[in-house]
Amino acid sequence: MLFENDVAIFMIQLKIALKEKFYFVYTLLLPIFMVFLNKNLNFQDDGSLYIYWSYIVVTTVFNGFLINIIRLRESGFFKTLIFLVESKNMILLSNIFVQLIIVQLEILLFNIFVTLFITHLSLITFLYGFLTSFLATLLSAAMMVVLLFVKMKQDSFNFLIGSLFVLGIALLGLHPNGILEYLLTILNPFQMIYELYIVHCSSSTLKFLIGSCTILYLAIAGFLLPKISINRYLK
After folding, report:
1. Among 18, 207, 188, which Cα is nearest to 98's?
2. Which long-range contacts (CB under 8 A, 24 or more apart) does 19-25 make?
3. Where are the transmembrane segments (predicted)?
4. Most buried of 2, 82, 104, 141, CB within 10 angstroms?
């Protein structure tokens, strides 16, 4: 019975995610369009791909995890789901699992498009994207958990997360170095996920920073997730 409830809540979360088709316009179709426009760039290595991968991961988690949980909570449907399955943690974990599946599907489709229309990607690149994107999705969600505890007016909150989203994308395009790179890696999910994908090419200092931040963010998220309120937070 418990397993059936887990499957049911997973299917509900998956249907909610797939119903929001507009999100796929800028989580998948937009990066495909942008990579096609920039197809004359040098794709001799996979470094050019990682910016697009990081964009796909963070935007998918932003909409599918952060925005979706907020909407469920503010509409009162979060309480309904908890009444059905009697487990807040299961609802949150099933949502993250749905994001893992969607991210993997989007990364796969993006890579297939690049292979067919721009340049051949090796099976190793496909495998690397598949394996690394699991951790990238979990880390991206972990970095956003703290926003679920922000309590303010609805309009102010919408402006806050919208501004953070746009600023994060803009800062990713800076290609920072030195201290600024370290700072943005810690604070900006787009930069963190990008650095995670290129960690094998990074300096020892940056590798240590990425590893430490990954462990810290995952630990903090593990501590905070059970404490997320089921009541409305936004006024």
Report:
1. 18
2. 20/63, 20/64, 23/60, 23/63, 23/64, 24/106
3. 21-38, 50-70, 91-114, 126-150, 157-176, 196-225
4. 141
> Is 40 buried (19+), middle (13-18) or exposed (0-12) by CB count in 10 A?
exposed
- Under a CB-based contact definition with an 8 Å cutoff, are residues 97 and 179 in contact? no
Structure tokens that stand for 58 in this block: 């963070």
What is the total count of domains within the chain? 1
Q: Is 163 helix (H, G, I), strand (E, B) or coil?
A: helix
Residue 9: CB atoms within 10 A of its CB come to: 20
Domain that holds residue 61: 2-227
Q: Do residues 81 and 9 lie in contact, with contact meaning Cβ atoms separated by under 8 Å?
A: yes
Whether residue 1 has pLDDT greater than 50: no
Maximum mean pLDDT: which of 70-84, 102-116, 140-154: 102-116
- How far apart are the C-alpha atoms of 167 and 171, rounded to whole Å? 6
Is 202 within the bounds of a domain? yes
The mean per-residue pLDDT over the stretch 59-86 comes to 85
Note whether residue 130 is domain-resident: yes
The residue assigned the tokens 């791909």 is 49
Does residue 235 lie within any of the structural domains?
no
- Whether residue 195 lies inside any domain: the answer is yes
- Among the listed residues 191, 185, 194, the one whose alpha carbon sits nearest the alpha carbon of residue 216: 185
Q: Which of 222, 172, 215, 179 is nearest to 195 (CA)?
A: 172
Token pair 């991961």: residue: 57
Tokens found for residue 47: 């470094």
